[in-house]
Write a structure and sequence with these properties.
single chain; alpha/beta; Rossmann fold; UDP-N-acetylmuramoyl-L-alanine:D-glutamate ligase; 11-stranded mixed β-sheet; 7-stranded parallel β-sheet; 19 helices; elongated; disordered C terminus; YjeF_N_dom_sf; nucleotide-binding; metal-binding
Length: 521
Amino acid sequence: MRLGYPAAAIRAAEAPLLDAGRGPVLMRTAAAGLAAVCRRDLIEARGCVTGARVVVLAGAGNNGGDALFAGADLSRRGARVTVVDVLGRLHPEGAAALRAAGGDIEPLGAESAPLTARAELVIDGILGTGASGSLRAPLDTFIADWQAAASGTGSARRQRVIAVDVPTGVDATTGAVGAVHVRADRTVTFGGHKAGLLLPGGADAAGELALVDIGLDLAPFRPTVEAPEPADLAVGWPFPQPDMHKYTRGVLGLVAGSHRYPGAGLLTTAAAVSTGLGMLRLLAPDEVTAAVLDRCPEVVTEPGRVQAWAVGPGAPDTLLMRRAIIEAENRSLPLVIDAGGLGLLTRPLETTCIVTPHAGELVDLLGRLTTGVPTRAEVEADPVTHAVRAAQAFEGVIALKGRRTIVARPDGSVVAPPPGPAALATAGSGDVLTGILGALLATTAEHRVAERSGPYDQADWSGPATDIAILAGLAVTVHGLAGHRTTHASGLPAAVEDIVLGLKAGSAGAGTGQNDGRRGE
């Protein structure tokens, strides 16, 4: 589980060390970690460091200093290192170390973009965590020209770009990017993950993340982003215990499917059953239950006591959905509301709830709960902001579905699972996710907490998840992994079952595809 902190928290954690005069030590540690990553990348790409063409893009701050010291390390090991002084204010000690190691320094000019485009490795140390807003000339022009030239060189050996702490043009806290920003293959970040590196926009720009420990104490600070990874599933998944029976293992009530959309009921049911349940009670028309029982004969089609509800896939009967929502509120049962159920929401509910809209549905939901409604395009451009806004207005957890699904809490923090594959952009995919979510809520109902009561501690990640936002993040992670195993929604439930069985067997790689090139990251 990667934890993301706002830039202000990272700076506050650095402050005591800087006040104690440990700034040079921090920079040497950061630069050594950065240089080690650069060396590994060069050796992997070309077999050695010696003779590699390296360009360091250095700004005026500590990021520039880190990049210069790393460039000096590479130069001492035989790389041909050229520094482009992008802002005209190099870190003095870093520049001196670079020159002493035999590197060259050039001012930003007309030849800088072609020079950078020809490099085998580019180290982006221009701007750091304190930067925000769109880049201005001449910096934006230089970056655009360099990246355009590098992508059009036709070289068989692709250029590698490593960003220092945060790619230039990325907001370290929000992940917002302008029209021009550095697109890195890897970002080496220091002390703690910046929240923006785990969020849409920033995560795409950052590429793979490498974290270098520089001794920061982040315990006093609460992360604003939690990013589950496939490896977390083996720890956080609620497996059945030996003393459980079908009622204590979890009973899900499901209202899904209709005469118009019978397949939605089947997909949601199959996904929930594949995730693992003690029992599923389906309330649906006869044509839906007939199809479900043909595939899943263990499903019960009569009402009865449940431990969680899921409603909405496939435009089900409004009265049945209302009754389920009322029961959930009266008995404080956790609830998933999707698709057809979203139109029933006009107020916050008096129970724990996960709402799963796509961008257009979120616009409609905000229209009923608040004023100043965004457009769908605005939601898609800034999903985090609008998901958080909806969570606060609804006073519940919002799982905003999209290329990168964001799970938002009312306190403003978010869970950001890995993005799923394009194969999930298909009819019925959302129904499957609802089934997974409902099953997880039912199987953790006896141990679940409505909200996280304090800061998340990595050391506490030692048992099944009880925070519903984390549960939703795990559900989205499994959904994404399953999407790598099929081309259509009807294949997803079987893929989910395969993943869960792999986790139960204690082999995350066998179940999640981490070892077969299909990892959902």
